[in-house]
Amino acid sequence: MGAEAGSIANEEVRPARSLWSDAFRRLRRDRLAVLCLLVVLAYAAAALLAQFGWIASPWEQEVGKAFAPPSFDRLELIMGTDFLGRSVLYKVVHGARVAMSVGLLASLISVPIGVLLGATAGYFGGWWDDAVVWFYTTVASIPGIMLLIAITLMLGKGMTAMCIALGATSWVHLARVMRGEFMKHKSREYVVAAESLGAGHSARIFRHIFPNVSHFVIINFSIQFMGAIKAEVILSFLGIGAQGLPSWGVMISDAKDELSRWVFWPWLNGTTPVWWQLAGATSAMFFVVLALNILGDALRDALDPRIK
Amino acid sequence: MHRRFHDLLPLLLVPALMLSAGGCTPRKKTDTANTLNTYQPSRIKGLDPIYADDIYSGTEVKRAYEGLLQYHYLKRPYELAPNLAEAMPEVSADGRSYTFKLKKGVLFQDDPCFKETGGQGRELTADDVVYSFLRLVDPRLVSTGWWVLDGKIEGLNEWRESAKHAPPDYTKPITGLQALDRYTVRITLVRRSAQFLFALAMPFTSIVPREAVQHYGKEFLNHPVGTGPFRMAEFDRNSRLVWVKNPTYRKELYPSEGESGDKEAGLLEDAGKPIPFLDRIVVQVFDETHPQWLSFLSGKLDATGIPKDNFAEAVGGNHDLTPELQKKGIRLHKNPGIDIVRTTFNMKDPLVGRNKLLRQAISLAYDAEPYIELFFNGRAIPAQGPIPPGVAGFDPDFKNPYRQYNLEKAKELLAKAGYPGGKGLPPLEYSATADGVSRQTTEYLQKLLAPLGIKLKVNTYSWPEFQAGVKNARGQLWSYAWNADYPDAENFLQLFYSKNASPGPNDANYSNPEFDRLYEKALQLQDGPERTALYQQMVRIVVEDCPWIFAVHRSIFSLVQPWVKNYKRHGFEHNAMKYYRVDPALKKQ
């Protein structure tokens, strides 16, 4: 009996493992996706190292005169300096820290909400399903940026407020997907079997169905992560995001006025507008958003059985 | 008056935004030739005179409302002149009593609130003056301008006290504020005051009709009904105000005297002509400086200050206009601003308010020189105390011991204050407005405090929210500017008088009995060496207690388009625009 049970368990586990390893193989074959993954990991590493103060630290420090143009004299001057003579390179790195942490925290808030609401709505159906669908339709019908600003202002601005606001507004898509998948799966044979073996609702939802739809979470995670980074930059640009931290949005906000300020640049032997904060922040944002986008697509190709 | 600490000039002019072609809904085409396009760098809280405590709402209020007195537009040094009063008041022998004769036939602007006349504005009378002053006093209205009358007029404080317990009676006779007949008002002061008449030229003491207050109730804030040269046509507090010429405005003439040089500058060409010359004033609200600058360059704004990042583009290193702007005929006006930019410590706060050494340490770490370069392009001088140059009581030789940048001494004092290296000190709560320049200023302050180990917790607000926070003594530090209301140092010293604490103008909630005593003594003195000596003594007390970081005094650079005539910067007159003229022919070019 024991041996039999073991072999059944093995039978069940093998296909699951092969889905993941299969997906990983596909992903590895897609060179662009691997490159993007490396880019994202590099950002994550930079953010982590900056968080612990091992690189680009301290960013608040004056490293040269105000508005010094890019130069190769020292590493911290490669992207020039800002109005207080701080290194733009350091600010870009710390901007990555802010963006990545907001992306991560916001996703960590929104994913459980999306999974929980979507799963229970799809699984139980009935009035609860109606209620959840009504709720997410309502949330989705309010323009996202408005809702974000409203919640951020209500919670008093800053990183925490921003993460909560982003988390609270970006779960709808995932909830929809999960609801659909749970509706499909709940009457499948393996779930019926689990039920007849005495598995309760929560066991069926989380132990049996969820592992079979969890790849949607991964796909969604990468997309939400990217959305959160973009939203962080926008909110910080508007002055209601990161407070007192070197966010890319804040840098772009600085740059919009600085572009009309001209300074002497030895490389050109002439004057140039102060463009380096803008260039640094936008390119840093461009690469990570692009990488997450491509990675998200690649993950979908690799993981979503419907596209196989 | 309160002012954001980093804006550049109180009057900004914006045009009818004739939005460029391509898909935009075309705005109704009005005759814009005789329009002045100006701006405000901040949202307008409202247009009720008794709340007009910042320079932005004060300027807007004064387009529609008038007071008994005004300033002579051209004469310097600044001089008061009659406005709604027929002449300057008769003063009694003991100097305490002023009798004003009102001009006859002054009409309030037509408005539906005048039901008896079917919307036609009625004549202004002495009762309106008494009524308007009492609104400023009425404790239920929580005016932000009560301080200009507090303790000054006989019987007024008693009236205020009685109104705290029972509904206020606006008809109750008050000894110091009487309408003797339809056109005569007598004001009797508790004691002689050298500054009292200045209060009658401020926005707070503008005359409002009772009908409008009753008809509009809370909405009175958005419906100005005054006797002034302009009436409101459009009010969107977040973006734009439009004023049009008031057709029932009485006959007022452009001044025919000025100071020497005015004639050569063409400022007397319109002497003796009826004002106002403008048909419309369009006021655009710009939170950020860049669009403001671009509007000016494209001719859609008739005058502007110079944003810090555009300074080099506008004005060369020698502080002269660049050739490009000269070619356009744009004029540059440079004037000292009679003001102070400072960072306030909230003395009500149990932490910063009770620790003098901590405040002194922070003040010592505040380096004004880079601040002036970075944020004012050199258009400011470091402040040593509250009194700016240009008013009696300013001492050019005085050096504030806590305003000489000295990091070592700052660290020493911080250790003595109980926080060596900043250890044990929680992040200080700093309030600021939410625009870009304000954020940069905050970053600068954070950078200055970093070597002391002091951190800031920053809360950002819109300008009206920010002011409300300050009024409620919320937060530990904030940056603010004070612009003189009248040319007397008393206007700066009253900012430390304990009875003027929040919601009054003493936003630090500073209180020192010795200072109060000297202040009250100085109030009774006329301008002279004795008073100046008292002023300087008071400055030394404040400097030692350090309720502010005295940052800088600004100079004001303004750029004016060639078609704007009769422009002369005035430090105190809020309604200078009634004298402006636009030359449509030049504007078309």
What does this entry look like structurally?
The complex is a heterodimer of chains A (308) and B (589). Chain A has 308 residues and is mainly α. Helix content of chain A is 73%, strand content 3%. Chain A has a two-stranded antiparallel ribbon. The two termini of chain A are 37 Å apart. Chain B is α+β, with helices and mostly antiparallel strands and 589 residues long. In chain B, strand 8 and strand 9 form a beta hairpin. Chain B contains 17 helices and 24 strands. Classes of the chains: A mainly alpha (308), B alpha+beta (589). Chains A and B meet through helix 10 of A and helix 6, helix 7, helix 12 and strand 20 of B.
Quick synopsis:
By secondary structure, chain A is mainly alpha-helical. Helices cover 73% and strands 3% of the residues of chain A.
Structural descriptors:
heterodimer, A: 308 residues, mainly alpha, MetI-like fold, 11 helices, 73% helix, B: 589 residues, alpha+beta, Dipeptide-binding Protein, domain 3, nine-stranded mixed sheet, five-stranded mixed sheet, 24 strands
Number of helices of chain B: 17
- Cα(first) to Cα(last) distance of chain A is 37 Å
**CATH architecture level-2 label of one domain in chain B:** Roll
Text of the CATH class of chain A: Mainly Alpha
How many individual helices of chain A?
11
Strand tally of chain A is: 2
Average pLDDT figure of chain A: 87
List the helices and strands and how they pair.
The complex is a heterodimer of chains A (308) and B (589).
Chain A (H helix, E strand, L loop, with lengths): L1 H28 L1 H21 L36 H37 L1 H16 L2 H12 L2 H12 L2 H14 L3 H8 L4 H37 L10 H11 L3 E4 L4 E4 L2 H28 L5
Antiparallel strand pairs in A: 1-2
Helix pairs in contact in A: 1-11, 2-3, 2-11, 3-4, 3-6, 3-7, 3-9, 3-11, 5-6, 6-9, 7-9, 8-9, 9-10, 9-11, 10-11
Chain B lengths: L1 E2 L8 E2 L21 E6 L14 H10 L4 E3 L8 E3 L7 E2 L5 E5 L24 H12 L18 H10 L11 E5 L2 E5 L7 H4 L10 H7 L13 E7 L3 E6 L6 E2 L20 E2 L4 E6 L3 H9 L5 E3 L5 H4 L8 H5 L3 E6 L2 E7 L10 H9 L3 H9 L3 E3 L24 H10 L11 E6 L2 H14 L6 E6 L1 H9 L5 E7 L6 H4 L19 H11 L5 H17 L2 E13 L3 E2 L15 E2 L1 H5 L1
Parallel strand pairs in B: 3-14, 19-20, 19-21
Antiparallel strand pairs in B: 1-21, 2-3, 4-5, 6-7, 7-9, 8-9, 10-11, 11-14, 12-13, 15-22, 16-22, 17-21, 17-22, 18-22, 23-24
